Amino acid sequence: MMHLFTGTIFGYHVPWFVILHVVIAILFFLRIIWVRRPVGVAVSWLLIIVSFPIVGLILYLTIGERPVGRTLTSKIIRMEKEYAKISKAMRQLHEPDRSLLHADAHAISLLAQAKNGTPVAAGNRIELFTNSLEILQHFIDEINRAQQSIHMEFYIWSLGGDADRVGEALIAASKRGVKCRVLLDSLGSSSWFKSAWPDRFAKAKIEVTEALPIQFGRFQFRRADLRLHRKIFIIDGEIAWTGSMNLVDPRTFKQDSGVGEWVDAMVRIQGPVVSQFELTFSYDWSVDNPRVMHFHDRDGLHKKPAGNALAQEFSSGPVYRDDILYQVLLSAILDARQELVITTPYFVPDEGLVQALMAAAHRGVKVKLIVPRLNDSTLVAWSSRSFYSALLGAGVEIAEFKGGLLHTKSLLIDERTAIFGSVNFDQRSLRLNFEISLIVYDQTFCTQLKQLTTSYLKRSQIINRIGWERRPRWRRLLENTAHLASPLL
After folding, report:
1. Which of 255, 189, 231, 188 is nearest to 404 (CA)?
2. What is the pLDDT of residues 189-228, one digit of tens each?
3. End-to-end CA, the chain
4. Top-confidence residue, 484 or 91
5. What is the enclosing helix (H) or strand (E) of 236?
6. N or C: which end of the chain has fewer CB within 10 A?
């Protein structure tokens, strides 16, 4: 019976499971070489495959690469051609506005508009809001005042609390003739899609599209964890909101996670840059809605000035504008001369970004990193802390926020340029998710953002380097173990 369970290699009897293990490892190694993954990511996957070949192979087929499926890819390519014409017209229209930028901002603005991106535009009014319940009430008020259209695009629409009041206001708006469109991520808003709300919206003639639906059995053709992580809310094509906040009531959202209420911030925008957010929404709607075949649903490019702020919308994703987000963040860190303040709930950078932060601190830049003390992802929390020793050693100030789960995502450079939106400082945002940010080149807004981050620092515990190095060895071991998975988080 032994021959049923063994094979012969070089005259030796070897169990079939060992042969299978070796074959899987070799084939996987060849695949990794073929797709040229980052070294850290490749080594992490090789370690998983060698240790757990079958489980590792299933995981890799599920989340190992970045395909969105052949059908969706071909549609994106088709839509991209039509999108490119509009974004080019935007860049030509606002080319004179570039002369208004301060010298240090030219490089990052050009990089942000590369690969069919949108340009810096003058004449905007940008307001910062920091109280989640007040933001939800503002959403309701905006919906109640809407006259023509409402476009909403979010990762999560959570049930309960004032988030339900937003839904009721949307139904009322649709009944009075406002054209309402809602685009929600399939995974992030899975509870919403399973609730009675989709039927209620359909009866009220509100159009709803489920972005990137998960289809079991098709993981080998479309990666399951590529998500639409954007937060966009546009009213009558004249007002746009964006930032870190999903459609959730912090009093009811994830209260069983033990991290307290989620702390978010949003911006309200008026002026020419609203057209750029409308462009991104229209593009996403056209790509994700199976009934739309051509990308043509666009308002005019010309918007009346509403203020004095210079700004540009900055979108990114794993298929189009690939890796441009990483390049912008890296450039922003390298361009800092005096101070760099980062707020992020999930801090899992790669070695390049870590070295850039350390280099900034070494050349005298005051680098401040603000992260939540408690995190809803245990693995992310342990992995984040594995970077502390190197950063503290370089002079980076690390603060752990104690007032809940700090969910605001911002990067403030020399109090003159701000990147504010949905982007986390982790591999998922940098390489996997569809993200949205607003880059602001305005002293008034940057001062407001500095005041907000200062308020976060006052509610935080500053990590002491000497005390940190004295932490128990078992914690260091857990952190470094979690760090091995950081390229995959």
Report:
1. 255
2. 999 999 999 999 999 999 999 998 876 554 444 556 678 9
3. 45
4. 91
5. none
6. N
Encoded tokens for 398: 């690390």
Would you name the residues annotated as active-site residues? 229, 231, 236, 407, 409, 414
Residue type, 480: N
Whether residue 161 contacts residue 252, with contact meaning beta carbons closer than 8 Å, is answered with yes
- Quick check: 393 and 359 in contact, CB under 8 A? no
Structure tokens given for 196 = 């009675």
Residue 385 or residue 297, greater confidence? 385
Backbone angles phi and psi of 6, in degrees to 5: -135, 160
* Closest to 487 measured CA to CA, from 48, 24, 34: 48
* Structure tokens given for 363: 């050349």
Bridge-based pairing of strands 397-401 and 366-372 is parallel
| Angle (CA) 39 45 46, round 5° | 85
Q: Which residues pair with 371 in a beta bridge?
A: 400
pTM for the whole thing? 0.88
Residues 6+ apart with CB under 8 A from 58: none
Identify the DSSP state of 52: S
Q: Has residue 153 got a pLDDT over 60?
A: yes
In terms of average pLDDT, the best of 78-92, 100-114, 137-151, 282-296 is 137-151
Query: Which of 296, 52, 282, 258 shows the shortest CA–CA distance to 183?
Result: 282
- CA 468 to chain CA mean position, Å: 30
376 and 405 Cβ atoms separated by less than 8 Å? yes
- Token duo for residue 245: 């906040």
Contact predicate 156/248, CB 8 Å: yes
**Count of residues in the chain:** 489
Q: What are the beta bridge partners of residue 243?
A: 266
3-state helix, strand, coil in the chain (%, to 5): 45, 20, 30
Dig out the tokens for 391 from the structure.
């950063």
Split at pLDDT 50, 70, 90, the class of 58 is low
Cα-flanking dihedrals φ and ψ of residue 398, to 5°?
A: -115, 125
In whole angstroms, what is the distance from residue 319 CA to residue 111 CA?
18
Beta bridge partners of 368: 341, 397
- Spatial CB neighbours of 23, under 8 Å, sequence gap ≥ 6: none
What is the reported pLDDT for 4?
Answer: 45
